[in-house]
Design brief:
about 220 residues; alpha/beta; Glycerol-3-phosphate (1)-acyltransferase; two-stranded antiparallel ribbon; about 45% helix
């Protein structure tokens, strides 16, 4: 549990950072590919489980804003100021992580899927190792029947933090390519299905990264 002082700090950070992030993102040229996968999942009645690497959280927050998506956020200080920020962009949060409160949070996210709301995971969060998919989203897909919808984003210019995930912060007036990959369906919650799904998910994210880099290298039509 956070102290009252820490709770106040998370609110102050969110109040200061949210308008700055919004202003930054409005300067960026966005190239988004694969939106049809999101739309198809929603129309099917099985809302998607959006999955991405922790280091691309900023780009994803902007592109998927104001859709009522539910995100799992860590109960620690860093997780809570991030949660306060994304809530200002139209998300809802449940508290939990792979290291604490994860089982309860997964069940809550399953209930949100059943209510018709998409959910989202930083699948290597909250502490890594970076770019290694944790089983939470895979279990949820097998338990709910909802597809996992992976995406990856790359920026033409960015700052990278020195944190474990090397979070990318796109520079003003840069171009960001965000590619939503093909859905990954997990048949059940057995260890075999989850292990196979993890390999598939990481492969789709790899292809999405390659495609995002291709989009950035394409010259605009004259």
């Amino acid at each position: 549990m956070l102290t009252r002082s820490q709770q106040l700090q998370t609110r102050l950070i969110a109040a200061a950072a949210s308008p700055l992030l919004g202003a930054l993102c409005r300067t960026i040229t966005w190239k988004v590919e694969g939106n049809q996968f999101y739309d198809e999942a929603v129309r099917s009645g099985r809302p998607p489980i959006i999955a991405f690497w922790h280091g691309r959280i900023l780009s994803g927050t902007w592109v998927f804003r104001n859709r009522g998506i539910v995100v799992m956020a860590s109960a620690n200080f860093d997780g809570q100021w991030i949660a306060r920020i994304i809530e200002r962009f139209g998300y809802r949060t449940v508290m939990g992580s792979t290291s604490r409160g994860g089982a309860r949070a997964l069940l809550e996210m399953k209930r949100e899927l059943e209510r018709g709301y998409p959910v989202a995971f930083t699948i290597d969060g909250p502490r890594g190792p970076a770019r290694v998919a944790q089983p939470g989203a895979l279990w949820l897909a097998g338990a709910s029947g909802s597809p996992i919808l992976p995406f990856h984003a790359e920026a033409s210019g960015f700052w990278a933090t020195r944190s474990w995930d090397s979070t990318h912060v796109p520079k003003p007036f840069s171009t960001v390519a965000l590619v939503i990959g093909e859905p990954v369906v997990i048949s059940d919650t057995t260890e075999k299905a989850i292990d196979a799904g993890r390999l598939t998910l990481e492969a789709v994210l790899g292809r999405s990264e390659e495609r995002a880099r291709q989009l950035l290298s394409q010259k605009p039509l004259s």
